[in-house]
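Structure (tokenized):
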């Protein structure tokens, strides 16, 4: 905490003398000079122009090389230069081998920070984002090596944590598990800037990169979540997280406190829709907004109503950044409080020479110390207001944008290598307090704003081999053309467009297509990469299903049959068949035969004696049920035509003739016997 406090105190000493007015500069000049500034300072000279008040930032996202690279990515900077930054940064690593990459964060090469803003987690996030926009998995691999270093430098068991913001490296044994604190009171930080939340936030970027090890990512996220769960304390009936373990002071800032944790939870739910994380997010929101104060507990403790930090990292701008993400899920009372917060920030705006600006903080209503930086001043506040205005009134802040730019331009001091923003007597060039952090405001007019009609598409059950399509309307509500690349990871989800543009104010229908190949339940995210600067994720899900397929072997529709017939069927399914039933229906739909068929192969046979039924039309129905209780059916209409026996046919038949002859013979024999018997009786009488 002392480290960041020193930075704030030094910033307060910014000279009050006006800087040269350079309002005639073109916006593109500022962007180009950010590149030339890097090219002149890259290498050992970079740390000689580090951010003031803190000599431990020149590789980090907040104040160093990685931060400039990150800002150039999000502002659609020249990718070749960003890749040069990535190569240079890797070459400066104190350890750069096949398994690990690690940087010192100060001139003392024994000190390494692991957090997001000031340490390894943020540097890894830079490589992950570069991998996403270039689709180059080499950068993903570098990020993985950095995370390996973080894991080795941390206390890892069922959770992950580290004491203070610096980890001691003992000579060549840079992976040693020794720790010390530098005026940090042995604090274990939870927040985004220094603690495990920052690691989790970074890992979620890594999980989107091509070739990411998602199993590893989930394992690290589980460790982070376990730490946060065990670090919870009860404050006024809510389970919340302190700045440090064993300290009941709860910060609500983005860098160190609740707002940064909330952003992590929100982002995590896009990666893994976990009910426990959702409940933690809900409780966190309730703690922020539903207390008894004007804005609940938003300013309780670290920030009170009489003294506002206004900036993005430590102040109310960062709170609004988080609350705008979850604005749609808030109830009307909570939304009203968020709008009041927006108004509160807007009231702090004040005209300064050449434009409008915001102070770093206000004390008892007095505006103090205007700064142009992203972390603590105008650049970050305006960026936040513009983002929030997408939800309420997009044009309000955009109409003032040139005035904000003018105020920043007027704070530029000339430097032989290009432009820079003086902070005290040093040259700020990192994302937090320097030139890189204001780039967004000078490129926003060239950035489109793309929205999608739905954020998720569920296809439900679709038969294997068949195709289902849903349309998502992609709209450019910004002021310039949007170039969009569609990226997905699963071949069974596809789109009709993979690379397209949308003019300002126009829409394009995007068809998302689901063609299942098996019976697995599938989920994926289709990313729309906009101008290589930002991405929009559309959640997609679907279930492939496969009902039994039944084919008749030999017997076709309309067949005329007689006598004894073998009814043979081939039944196939990607799952096991549980039951096969055969039924014969007469013309009135009445069953005249019902039986179950068994088979050890895919062929099922039943021998039917058709003479057991009248000659007529019948329907043979075969029904198969698989182990998922999905049903397949085959119906075949047949006609039974067995020969009919006529009386005349019987009289001329061999059976009748032979029978008649036999009867005559028998009668003749009987008659003969009777005659003989009579003759004998007559002879006896005569005698």
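Design, position by position:
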């Amino acid at each position: 905490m002392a480290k960041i406090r020193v930075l704030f105190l030094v910033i307060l000493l910014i000279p009050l003398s006006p800087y040269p007015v350079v309002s005639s500069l073109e916006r593109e000049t500022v962007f180009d000079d950010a590149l030339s500034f890097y090219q002149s300072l890259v290498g050992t000279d970079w740390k000689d122009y580090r951010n003031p008040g803190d000599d431990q930032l020149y590789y980090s996202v907040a104040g160093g090389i990685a931060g400039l690279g990150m800002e150039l990515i999000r502002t659609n900077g020249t990718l070749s230069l960003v890749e040069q930054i990535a190569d240079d940064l890797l070459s400066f690593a104190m350890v750069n081998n096949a398994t690990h990459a690690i940087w010192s964060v100060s001139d003392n090469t024994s000190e390494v920070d692991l957090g997001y803003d000031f340490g390894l987690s943020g540097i890894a996030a830079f490589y992950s984002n570069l991998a996403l926009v270039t689709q180059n998995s080499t950068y993903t691999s570098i990020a993985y090596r950095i995370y390996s270093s973080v894991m080795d430098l941390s206390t890892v068991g069922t959770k992950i944590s580290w004491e203070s913001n610096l980890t001691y490296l003992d000579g060549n044994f840079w992976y040693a598990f020794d720790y010390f604190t530098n005026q940090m009171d042995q604090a274990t930080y939870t927040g985004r800037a220094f603690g495990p939340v920052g690691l989790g936030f970074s890992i979620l970027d890594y999980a989107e990169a091509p070739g990411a090890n998602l199993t590893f990512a989930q394992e690290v996220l589980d460790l982070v979540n376990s730490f946060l769960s065990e670090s919870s304390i009860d404050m006024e009936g809510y389970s919340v997280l302190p700045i440090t373990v064993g300290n009941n002071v709860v910060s609500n800032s983005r860098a160190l406190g609740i707002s940064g944790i909330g952003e992590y939870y929100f982002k995590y739910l896009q990666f893994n829709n976990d009910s426990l994380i959702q409940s933690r997010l809900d409780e966190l929101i309730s703690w922020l907004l539903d207390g008894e104060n004007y804005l609940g507990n938003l300013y309780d403790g670290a920030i009170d109503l009489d003294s506002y930090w206004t900036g993005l990292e430590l102040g109310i701008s960062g709170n609004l950044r988080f609350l705008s993400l979850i604005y749609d899920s808030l109830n009307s009372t909570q939304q009203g409080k968020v709008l009041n917060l927006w108004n509160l920030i807007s009231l702090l705006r004040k005209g300064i020479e050449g434009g409008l600006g915001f102070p770093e903080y206000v004390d008892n209503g007095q505006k103090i110390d205007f700064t142009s930086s992203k972390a603590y001043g105008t650049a970050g506040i305006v960026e936040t207001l513009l983002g929030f205005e997408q939800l309420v009134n997009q044009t309000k802040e955009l109409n003032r944008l040139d005035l904000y730019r003018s105020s920043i331009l007027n704070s530029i001091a000339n430097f032989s290598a290009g432009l820079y923003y003086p902070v005290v007597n040093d040259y700020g060039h990192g994302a937090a307090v320097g030139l890189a952090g204001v780039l967004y405001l000078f490129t926003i007019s060239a950035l489109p704003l793309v929205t999608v009609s739905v954020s998720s598409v569920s296809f439900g059950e679709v038969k294997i081999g068949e195709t289902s399509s849903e349309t998502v309307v992609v709209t450019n509500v910004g002021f310039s053309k949007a170039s969009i690349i569609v990226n997905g990871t699963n071949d069974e989800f596809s789109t009709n467009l993979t690379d397209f543009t949308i003019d300002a104010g126009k829409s394009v229908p995007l068809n998302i297509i689901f063609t299942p190949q098996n019976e697995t339940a599938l989920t994926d995210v289709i990313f729309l990469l906009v101008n290589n600067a930002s991405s929009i994720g559309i959640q997609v899900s679907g279930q492939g299903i496969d009902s039994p397929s039944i084919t008749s072997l030999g017997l076709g529709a309309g067949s005329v049959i007689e006598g004894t017939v073998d009814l043979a069927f081939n039944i196939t399914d990607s799952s096991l068949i549980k039951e096969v039933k055969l039924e014969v229906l007469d013309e009135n739909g009445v069953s005249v035969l019902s039986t179950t068929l068994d088979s050890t192969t895919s062929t099922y046979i039943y021998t039917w004696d058709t003479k057991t039924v009248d000659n007529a039309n019948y329907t043979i129905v075969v029904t198969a049920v698989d182990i998922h209780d999905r049903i397949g059916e085959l119906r075949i209409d047949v006609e039974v035509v067995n020969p009919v026996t006529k009386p005349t046919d019987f009289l001329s038949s061999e059976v009748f003739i032979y029978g008649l002859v036999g009867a005559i013979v028998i009668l003749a024999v009987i008659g003969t016997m009777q005659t003989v018997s009579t003759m004998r009786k007559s002879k006896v009488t005569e005698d």
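Reviewer-requested clarification: The first helix runs from residue 2 to 11. The two ends are 156 Å apart (CA to CA).
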